[in-house]
UniProtKB/TrEMBL annotation, chain A:
The keyword Plastid does not apply. GO terms for cellular component: ATP-binding cassette (ABC) transporter complex, substrate-binding subunit-containing. Residues 4-234 form the ABC transporter domain. It comes from Jannaschia seohaensis. This is Multiple sugar transport system ATP-binding protein. The keyword Cytoplasm does not apply. It comes from the Bacteria. Keywords: ATP-binding, Cell membrane, Membrane, Nucleotide-binding, Sugar transport, Translocase, Transport. GO terms for molecular function: ABC-type transporter activity; ATP binding; ATP hydrolysis activity.
From TrEMBL, chain B:
The lineage of its organism: Bacteria, Pseudomonadati, Pseudomonadota, Alphaproteobacteria, Rhodobacterales. It comes from Jannaschia seohaensis. It is a multi-pass membrane protein. It is found in: Cell membrane. The keyword Cell membrane applies. This is Multiple sugar transport system permease protein. GO terms for biological process: transmembrane transport. Belongs to the binding-protein-dependent transport system permease family. InterPro entries: MetI-like (IPR000515), MetI-like_sf (IPR035906), UgpAE/MalFG_permease (IPR050809). GO terms for cellular component: plasma membrane. The keyword Transmembrane applies. The chain crosses the membrane at residues 12-36, 78-99, 111-132, 164-184, 238-258, 270-289.
Length: 373, 298
């Protein structure tokens, strides 16, 4: 078990820079997800930690040892690949025993260790099978077994659930969390699936364009996104982002957009009047009452709730999460409002930083909705 | 519903027969007829120029099995096949591994490596004969120049030099086939397997034996089977290089068949040799077919 530290790590492939000066300190025993869209540098980061890619500059350390110059096999890590990468000609038992064999563990001890791992992952019945005779979920467990058997300092998992069907993925998520709790090992998990990151991690490192956007626990990433990118990336349906500007009159800040004026949530001292973006999660949008008038465009029924998309004015859309008891029809006129205590204000631009003070707790009492057309 | 399905099925079947018929006809004309004809001819004593013959039954086979020349040719055939095939595999796999790396001029090297395989056998043999020539050959010249030998070596006129030379030229001529097939397979081995092996602590040699070689096994079996069959019946290269000499030291069964048919004018005897050769190759073929079937099943 060891902490992992990235210190100003840069990785370039020719003229293209995949990771820009990454600083990331992962605590001992922590489950950290590297989350981001394709090409954000999360896999490159993991591969640098594994020793499969070499950083262009900066230092990577595991525990108190800088590992830049260590081969993957010398870093005392284990990795689960997206494709599982099981050795196809070896049986399950041989696959699990392989890292032990390569590290010179005597044959007499290997058997017991493989057996113990197989029991942990319910693979005992499958030990003599070849990988091709296993289902996707079973292969996945063998890949985990090969990583677990050696008891490494850090586990690296590269989108290990992405090849599984939705049901199995849900099951394996729980299994992995349970495994992490039991082993208490440092785990670094790469995923583009925010549900996986949100449900499993102690902290999430959200990445975009090779840069770390936010590194915080799931609740904080959700409720206090550091910038507009994180706000838009985390959450399904995505946060409503409305471009406009903030103005200061007297002591109060107001947000203005075409057909919309709102009092801002408490802003940071650094806020300056000018172009800005209002972010409100669908659960912060109130449908059925409020000062804004819109027309229902699409209703997505998920069973326990409805996702309603309404058009406000000419080109503004507002997505709301509402109870399933009221059925909305497309084309219906609807009045809606914005719960300002759940709203965020971001600086202008695709990665504009948050300008409001973080409010982590959802507000219990109904908020005052001030809006005008 | 059931009836219409049957009609449709019949229509498909008729179309299938129609489409497959030309192939079957050509196959019968160029494979089945010569095969049956060879077996038939082997039961006669035939004078080649007139093709006149008389029925001798299995006499040709009795004579053949009692002949030292048959057995010595068979031994030569096996030495040639095993020798050249081993070199082809070693060279081919080695070269494929090199060409799989990110080396400079990889595309050019990949094209050039096919050169021996594409060049006409006659041209290749002529070039090699000049290289081997004891008076003017560059091989002797270079070896003399660096002091490896005091006298020019007779590469094709003495034993075991002649067999070694034939085996080497065969390896040079046919190893590109191994390179292509192995290279194609190498490119399909997922990188993740090598990466997993590196993380598991495997060095380069362990990765070769634990990842590369097991992944190549299936394709190597197919290559070995195919090349064994092709090398076993190789005629033109050996005939042009040594003509089976010195005396009969490099005479393999195909050369013996040719000699019987067109030098000794014994077409029936030649057919009997050919049939025996076919039976020997049948063993390879059965292994090959079984192997490909197994692969299809898995």
């Amino acid at each position: 078990m060891a902490a992992v530290n990235f210190d100003k790590v840069v990785k370039s492939f020719g003229a293209f820079t995949a990771v820009h000066g990454l600083d990331l300190a992962i605590d001992e025993g922590e489950f950290v997800s590297l989350l981001g869209p394709s090409g954000c540098g999360k896999t490159t980061t993991l591969r640098m930690l594994a020793g499969l890619e070499f950083p262009t500059s900066g230092e990577i350390s595991i525990g108190d040892r800088v590992v830049n110059d260590l081969a993957p096999g010398e870093r005392d890590i284990a990795m689960v690949f997206q494709s599982y990468a099981l050795y196809p000609h070896m049986t399950v038992a041989q696959n699990i025993a392989y890292p032990l064999k390569k590290r010179g563990v005597p044959k007499s001890e290997r058997g017991a260790m493989v057996q113990k791992t197989a029991e942990l992952l319910q693979l005992t019945e499958l030990l003599s099978r070849k990988p091709r005779q296993l289902s996707g979920g079973q292969q996945q467990r063998v890949a985990l077994g090969r990583a677990l058997v050696r008891d490494p300092k850090v586990f690296l998992l590269d989108e290990p659930l992405s090849n599984l069907d939705a049901k199995l993925r849900g099951y394996m998520r729980v299994e992995l969390v349970e495994l992490h709790r039991r082993l208490g090992r440092t785990m670094v998990y790469v995923t583009h699936d925010q549900l996986e990151a949100m449900t499993m991690s102690d902290r999430i490192a959200v990445m975009e364009g090779g840069r770390l956007q936010q590194f915080a626990p799931p609740t904080e990433v959700y409720r206090a996104p550091a910038n507009r990118f994180v706000a838009g990336f985390i959450g399904t349906p995505a946060m409503n982002l409305i471009d406009g500007e903030i103005r200061q009159s007297g002591g109060t800040w107001q947000f203005h957009a075409p057909g919309l004026t709102l009092d801002c949530p408490p802003l940071l001292d650094s806020a300056r009047p000018g172009p800005a973006c209002l972010g409100i999660r669908p659960e912060g949008v109130v449908f059925g009452s409020g000062p804004i008038e819109g027309v229902v465009q699409v209703v997505e029924q998920t069973g326990h709730e409805n996702i309603v998309v309404a058009r406000i004015g000419a080109d503004m859309r507002l997505t709301g999460r509402v109870g399933a008891e009221r059925v909305w029809q497309a084309g219906e006129t609807v009045r809606c409002g914005i719960d300002i205590d759940r709203a965020h204000i971001f600086a202008a631009g695709a990665a504009g930083e948050r300008l409001n003070r973080p409010g982590l707790r959802p507000v219990e009492a109904p908020a005052v909705i001030k809006a005008a057309r | 519903m059931q009836a219409s399905q049957t009609v449709l099925e019949r229509r498909y079947a008729a179309l299938g027969l129609l489409l497959i018929a030309p192939t079957v006809l050509v196959f019968c004309a160029v494979i089945v007829y010569p095969l049956v004809s060879a077996i038939y001819l082997s039961l006669f004593s035939i004078f080649t120029p007139t093709l006149q013959g008389e029925w001798v039954g299995l006499d040709n086979y009795r004579t053949l099995l009692a002949k030292d020349e048959f057995w010595s040719s068979l031994v030569n055939n096996l030495i040639w096949t095993v020798g050249t095939l081993t070199l082809q595999i070693l060279l081919g796999v080695g070269m494929a591994l090199v060409l799989h790396q990110n080396i400079w001029f990889r595309s050019l090297a990949r094209s050039l490596i096919l050169f021996p395989y594409f060049i006409s056998t006659v041209v290749a043999v002529l070039v090699w004969k000049w290289l081997f020539n004891d008076l003017y050959g560059i091989l002797n010249h270079l070896m003399l120049a660096v002091g490896m030998i005091d006298m020019p070596v007779d590469y094709l006129g003495t034993m075991p030099n002649a067999m070694i030379s034939v085996i080497l030229v065969g390896a040079w001529k046919f190893f590109p086939f191994v390179v292509i097939a192995v290279l194609a397979r190498l490119q399909t081995i997922p990188d993740a397997l090598y990466e997993a092996a590196r993380i598991d602590g495997a060095g380069p040699i362990a990765r070769f034996f634990d990842v590369t070689l097991p992944q190549l096994r299936d394709v190597l079996v197919v290559i070995i089977m195919l090349r064994a069959i092709w090398d076993f019946k190789e005629f033109d290269m050996i005939y042009l290089l040594t003509g089976g000499g010195p005396i009969t030291s490099t005479q393999t069964l195909p050369l013996l068949v040719y000699k019987e048919a067109f030098a000794l004018n014994q077409m029936g005897m030649a057919a009997a040799y050919a049939v025996v050769m076919m039976l020997i190759m049948l063993v390879f073929m059965i292994v090959y077919i079984r192997r490909t079937r197994q692969e299809a099943d898995t």
